[in-house]
């Protein structure tokens, strides 16, 4: 789609941003018009006729995500879950869907509470267990789609994308990777064999906690055409201003991910040394069971860290209530650091499901502040435990 050469860092700045032919504007315009003049019936000037079907600002964002994921097509939606919903439209009643057993709670809810009513059955397995994946695909009614999230939320499990995609391809199933946690800077699922890659652009791509959005990219013309049909038919499209904000966030993605990942690695190592911490979940820690896979699949292990404290949920709540720079809030992936307790917060809705998380777990989204200040802030959390 894009003809701009360059490495990722260059693409992040330039993809989808050719200077405007008419005005020379270096930044794509926010085109608010909902309709476009036709030169005679059907005579479209730029291919645009109505804002839900297509919009130049949205098209620039779609070109950007296609380029960054190494895809041929990009599609933008009003939220990550709107993107997910549109990917589920590729399924038919009676189809089975296979998911990571710690997939994003909202993804699970959409599959289990909504799509189940329309005849789509969803099974959750640990996708790190390739025997279990092979068994699922060898079943009498094998899944038509496998939904991978890696690293996963909030336990940062790492799934072998190429291995799962190979098993899926043999069974004629589609592989979808939710790449929200890694971003295309750290991990490129299409190159690893995935058919579709999906993002909550609300997180790292937007990067500033100020826009809700979703994106999908693919190399397949056929899948893109079916998704494009449903994007227009169901209408969960993002507004032009939101598209602009996501694009503006993407321009700094590479530098933000470098800084945040480096700080996360330092903090994870430091947390692992603390006596109050029972277990640290971070794919970049020495001795992590997936170290070799992380090396092969990811540029860096990312900026999400979670850890379990002795003392149960009460300790986790006390810790997360004591930090100041790490703001106690849901969401992740922005310039500012966030802290949360998944069991009563982001994962409350999956308490009695296969996706339930340990009560003493604390999740950090490490931002780009000075590492010394972040560490000092976590000391406040530890100090609160002994008060
Ligand atoms: C937030 C998130 C989603 C959902 O995205 P929204 O933009 O909130 O709809 C999906 N997957 C992951 C991994 C997420 O973190």
Write the topology of this structure.
Elements: H1 8-14, H2 56-68, E1 73-77, H3 80-88, E2 96-100, H4 105-114, E3 121-125, H5 130-137, E4 145-149, H6 161-170, E5 174-178, H7 183-186, E6 196-200, E7 214-218, H8 221-234, H9 240-250, H10 253-272, E8 277-281, H11 291-297, E9 304-309, H12 312-322, E10 327-328, E11 338-340, E12 361-365, H13 371-385
Parallel strand pairs: 2-3, 2-4, 4-5, 5-6, 10-11
Antiparallel strand pairs: 1-7, 6-7, 8-9, 9-12, 11-12
Helix pairs in contact: 2-9, 3-4, 5-6, 12-13
Pyridoxal-5'-phosphate is lined by residues 79-81, 104, 106-107, 149, 153, 178, 180-181, 200, 202-203, 212, 214.
Query: What order do the SSEs take from the amino end to the carboxyl end, as H and E?
Result: HHEHEHEHEHEHEEHHHEHEHEEEH
CA gyration radius, whole angstroms: 21 Å
Low-confidence stretches: none
- CATH class placement of the largest domain: Alpha Beta
Bound molecules: pyridoxal-5'-phosphate
Biggest β-sheet strands, sense, barrel: 7 strands, mixed
- Structure summary, number of beta strands: 12
CATH topology-level fold name of the largest domain = Aspartate Aminotransferase, domain 2
Q: Give the rounded overall mean pLDDT.
A: 95
Please report which band the strand proportion falls in: under 5%, 5-15%, 15-25%, 25-35%, 35-45% or over 45%.
Answer: 5-15%
Structural class: alpha/beta
Task: Describe what this molecule looks like in 3D.
The protein is of the alpha/beta class and 387 residues long. It has 2 domains: 8-250, Aspartate Aminotransferase, domain 2; 254-385, Aspartate Aminotransferase, domain 1 (Alpha-Beta Complex), CATH 3.90.1150.10. 36% of the residues lie in helices and 14% in strands. It contains 13 helices and 12 strands. Helix 4 (105-114) links the parallel strand 2 (96-100) and strand 3 (121-125). Helix 5 runs parallel beside helix 6 (161-170) and helix 12 crosses helix 13 (371-385). The chain is globular and about 75 Å long. The mean pLDDT is 95. Pyridoxal-5'-phosphate (PLP) binds next to helix 3 and helix 4.
């Amino acid at each position: 789609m894009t003809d701009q050469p360059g490495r990722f860092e260059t693409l992040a700045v330039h993809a989808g941003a050719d200077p405007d032919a008419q005005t020379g504007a270096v930044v794509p315009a926010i085109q608010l018009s909902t309709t476009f003049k036709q030169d005679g019936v059907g005579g479209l000037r730029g291919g645009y006729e109505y804002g839900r079907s297509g919009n130049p600002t949205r098209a620039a964002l779609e070109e950007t995500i296609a380029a960054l994921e190494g895809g041929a097509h990009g599609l933008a939606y009003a939220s990550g879950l709107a993107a997910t919903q549109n990917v589920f439209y590729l399924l038919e009643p009676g189809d089975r869907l296979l998911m990571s057993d710690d997939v994003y709670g909202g993804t699970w809810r959409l599959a289990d509470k909504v799509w189940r009513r329309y005849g789509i059955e969803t099974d959750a397995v640990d996708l790190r267990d390739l025997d279990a994946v092979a068994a699922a695909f060898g079943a009498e009614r094998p899944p038509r789609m496998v939904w991978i999230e890696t690293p996963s939320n909030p336990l940062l499990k790492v799934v072998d994308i190429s291995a799962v995609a190979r098993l899926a391809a043999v069974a004629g199933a589609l592989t979808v990777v939710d790449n929200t946690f890694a971003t295309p800077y750290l991990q490129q699922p299409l190159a690893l064999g995935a058919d579709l890659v999906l993002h909550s652009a609300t997180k790292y791509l937007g990067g500033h906690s100020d826009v809700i959005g979703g994106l999908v990219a693919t190399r397949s013309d056929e899948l893109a055409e079916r998704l494009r049909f449903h994007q227009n038919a169901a209408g969960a499209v993002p507004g032009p201003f939101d598209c602009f904000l996501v694009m503006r966030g993407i321009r700094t993605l590479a530098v933000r991910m470098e800084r945040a990942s480096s700080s996360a690695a330092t903090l994870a190592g430091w947390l692992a040394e603390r006596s109050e911490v029972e277990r640290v979940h971070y794919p970049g820690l020495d001795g992590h069971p997936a170290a070799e896979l992380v090396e092969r699949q990811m540029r860096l292990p990312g900026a999400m860290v979670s850890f379990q404290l002795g003392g149960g949920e009460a300790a986790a709540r006390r810790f997360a209530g004591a930090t100041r720079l790490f703001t106690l809030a849901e969401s992740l992936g922005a310039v500012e650091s966030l802290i949360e307790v998944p069991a009563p917060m982001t994962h409350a809705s999956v308490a009695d499901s296969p996706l339930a998380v340990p009560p003493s777990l604390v999740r950090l989204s490490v931002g780009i502040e000075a590492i010394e200040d972040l560490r000092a802030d976590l000391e406040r959390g530890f100090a609160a435990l002994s008060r």
